[in-house]
Amino acid sequence: MKPYYQDDAVTIYHGDCREILPTLDDIGVIVTDPPYGLGTLPPSGGRKAGTMGTELKDLAWDKDVVDWLGLWGGPCAVFCGGQRVAELVSSMSPDGMLIYVKSNPSPFGSSFEPCFTRGFAGRPAHFTAYNAANGQKHPTQKPLDLMRWIVGRSPDGTILDPFMGSGTTLVAAKRLGRRAIGIELEEKYCEIAARRCGDMSRVDADDEPLLAMMQGGEPCE
Ligand SMILES: C[S@@+](CC[C@H](N)C(=O)[O-])C[C@H]1O[C@@H](n2cnc3c(N)ncnc32)[C@H](O)[C@@H]1O
């Protein structure tokens, strides 16, 4: 399949990861933040319809991709919301956990998010980061320093993010000198990710305030 974008460190595919994953043979580690299935919450569940974008439309990721993760068996780090924990844990068989603690949680949202790991060295740990609400390129964009922390703890090999969004995992990997592959269903996010990865000579506009406002920027273990 022809990449949407490619440089010496990063390859981006535009499409459905359920179709593209079986065609890839150079996967070392999966680091990903899939849709949490929040679209299945009733309207009173806290998120306004429309705020989750594609995530409301594409809930089939859980069965196919979670099953695939189980069969694949390699090292991975997968963020997971409460509604999907049982399925993910039973298929993926994690052996560790990294926790993202939000220094600025929304009043109606969770103040932390678990990221289940398999094949990562080290004991469970948490990292506190500030999630910049302004200047985000994706509605559920992860802080770059959080993703750098996770990628930095991962075993060797090409990093794959099958639910790439705005490409934060790829930017983190490239900054750490790792090779990375991203897959994304929505072309507008492929374009954003390609732009972020293509221009690594400057700090992203949204990284500056993030870095400045980070609380407890050192990993807390
Ligand atoms: C939670 S977001 C990831 C956000 C990302 N961590 C960031 O920092 O920007 C999940 C992404 O998965 C994408 N997605 C959903 N289903 C997909 C599928 N089947 N294949 C590829 N991408 C998919 C959505 O369009 C969305 O951008």
Q: How would you describe what is shown here?
A:
The chain has a 9-stranded mixed β-sheet, covered by helices on one side. The chain has a single domain, classed as 3-Layer(aba) Sandwich (Rossmann fold), CATH 3.40.50. Mean pLDDT is 81; it is low at 38-60 and 208-221. The chain is an alpha/beta fold and 221 residues long. The radius of gyration is 16 Å and the shape is globular. It contains 8 helices and 9 strands. The structure holds S-adenosylmethionine. Residues 16-18, 33-35, 54, 58, 61, 138, 140-142, 162-163, 165-166, 168, 183-186, 189 line the site of S-adenosylmethionine (SAM).
Sum up the structure in keywords.
221 residues, globular, 19% strand, nine-stranded mixed beta sheet, 9 strands, 8 helices, Rossmann fold, alpha/beta, disordered C terminus
Please render the helix and strand layout as text.
Blueprint: E1 5-6, E2 10-14, H1 17-20, E3 29-32, H2 54-57, H3 61-72, E4 76-79, H4 85-92, E5 96-102, E6 112-118, E7 125-129, H5 144-152, E8 159-161, H6 168-175, E9 180-184, H7 187-198, H8 207-213
Parallel strand pairs: 2-9, 3-4, 3-8, 5-7, 8-9
Antiparallel strand pairs: 1-2, 4-6, 5-6
Helix pairs in contact: 3-4, 5-6
S-adenosylmethionine binds next to helix 1 and strand 9.
